[in-house]
Amino acid sequence: MLAQREQIKKYLLTHKKISTWEAIQKFRITRLGAHIYELRKRGMNIGAQRKRNSKTGTWYNEYFTL
């Protein structure tokens, strides 16, 4: 778990944003929201924006550093 959280943290610091689908594709992480919650608890300033996939109509969150 810790290694996954560190991967997400490093990715956010480098790329400034990550979506659930990116986390699944790049790191095989399916519980991105839980990791974001823990990173926030540890002091990382992370915002979220709810987006809609134009092709499927499904909603997802994109997390970004502030």
Question: How is the largest sheet built, in terms of strand order?
Answer: 1-3-2
Helix/strand order, N-terminal first: HEHHEE
**Count of runs of 4 or more consecutive helical residues:** 3
Biggest pleated-sheet summary: 3 strands, antiparallel
Count of domain modules: 1
Mean pLDDT: 94
> How many runs of DSSP E, i.e. beta strands?
3
Q: N- to C-terminal separation?
A: 24 Å
Percent helix among the residues?
A: 40-55%
SS-based class: alpha+beta
The coarse silhouette is globular
User: CATH topology, which one?
Assistant: Arc Repressor Mutant, subunit A
Instruction: Return the CATH architecture.
Output: Orthogonal Bundle
Strand content: 25-35%
Low-confidence stretches: none
Our Rg estimate from Cα atoms comes to 12 Å
CATH class: Mainly Alpha
Task: Describe the protein's architecture and organization.
This protein is of the alpha+beta class. The chain has a single domain (2-65), classed as Arc Repressor Mutant, subunit A (Orthogonal Bundle). 48% of the residues lie in helices and 26% in strands. The protein contains 3 helices and 3 strands; from the N terminus they run H-E-H-H-E-E. The chain has a 3-stranded antiparallel β-sheet. A hairpin with a 6-residue loop joins strand 2 and strand 3 (59-65). Helix 1 packs across helix 3 (32-41). The radius of gyration is 12 Å and the shape is globular. The protein starts with a helix and ends with a strand. The model has no long low-confidence stretch (mean pLDDT 94).
Strand-helix topology:
Layout: H1 2-15, E1 17-19, H2 20-27, H3 32-41, E2 46-52, E3 59-65
Antiparallel strand pairs: 1-3, 2-3
